[in-house]
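ARCHIVE CARD
Drawer: 12
Card no.: 0347
Subject: one protein chain, sequence and derived structure
Cross-reference: see card 0346
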Amino acid sequence: MPDTGIAPEEDKAQHLLLYIEQHIDQPEQLCLSVLAAKFRLSPTYNIRIYY
């Protein structure tokens, strides 16, 4: 993976936010179980990103 100059966790959060923006009109794609599976995170981790 190329070095983007962004910390891995920050990069993951940016990708997650972009995904949310792209799927904002598809709530079934934004439930915690889908986000956790897609981004290989625990649902608890996703909750911490939201708040």
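Annotation on reverse: Helices lie at 8-22, 32-39, 43-50. The two ends are 29 Å apart (CA to CA).
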